[in-house]
Amino acid sequence: MSTATEPGRVNAEQTGRRVEELLDRLAATGDGAAHAAAEDLVRALMDFYGAGLARTLALLTEQAGPGSPVLGRLLEDELVAGLLVLHDLHPWDVTARIDRALSTVRAHPAEVLAFDPDTGVLRLRLAADPGGGCGCGSGDAGAQQAVEGALACFAPEVTAVELEQPEPRAAAPVLLQIGPRPVEAG
């Protein structure tokens, strides 16, 4: 199972951006009728594919059962998950989808502190570097990008990510040396 988008593969985020770019280009031509027709076309196709996807999901759940491995694999797939979310059909709630997305960002593990559904802001705390890194935050840009990329398909409700630094690790306790008891003279 691939969780990262491979070069040349289609994903919901990239496709959405491409559609927006094309509609913007049409709007820039000044031909309002052509732009309106293009938007209607996109809506009609979205409605059609959404209805087909909903029916497919219902038939699969009916035949295989809600806990089937096949359904589980589909829900875990980035492309399918993105389509289900796009059409508001994904059976997992936003919290489960955020957790799923974050589980794919192994290089930058993070703990969810809060999600505000009204603003779309997700607050995360980066996990402490188990390798004893300096904790200086030098990887924050990479972590931000990795987290946002993972969330794009599984939880597009997240519109902004705020990263907090890991809690400072406590100093290692001093090792107490225990030896044999001194022999008493006597």
Could you explain the architecture of this structure?
- The protein has 186 residues and is mainly alpha-helical.
- It folds into two domains: 1-91, no CATH class; 92-168, GMP Synthetase, Chain A, domain 3, CATH 3.30.300.
- It is 49% helix and 10% strand.
- The protein is built from six helices and three strands.
- It has helices at 12-28, 32-64, 69-76, 78-86, 94-103, 140-154, and strands at 110-116, 121-126, 160-164.
- The chain has a three-stranded mixed β-sheet with strand order 1-2-3, covered by helices on one side.
State the oligomer.
single chain
Shape: elongated
The ordered string of helix (H) and strand (E) elements is HHHHHEEHE
CA gyration radius, whole angstroms: 24 Å
How many angstroms does the end-to-end distance come to?
74 Å
Q: Low-confidence runs (pLDDT<50, min 5 residues)? A: 1-5, 132-138
Structural class: mainly alpha
Topology:
Elements: H1 12-28, H2 32-64, H3 69-76, H4 78-86, H5 94-103, E1 110-116, E2 121-126, H6 140-154, E3 160-164
Parallel strand pairs: 2-3
Antiparallel strand pairs: 1-2
Q: Quick recap of the structure?
A:
The protein is mainly alpha-helical and 186 residues long. It contains six helices and three strands; from the N terminus they run αααααββαβ. It is elongated, with a radius of gyration of 24 Å.
Which key features would you list for this structure?
2 domains, GMP Synthetase, Chain A, domain 3, 6 helices, 3 strands, 186 residues, disordered N terminus
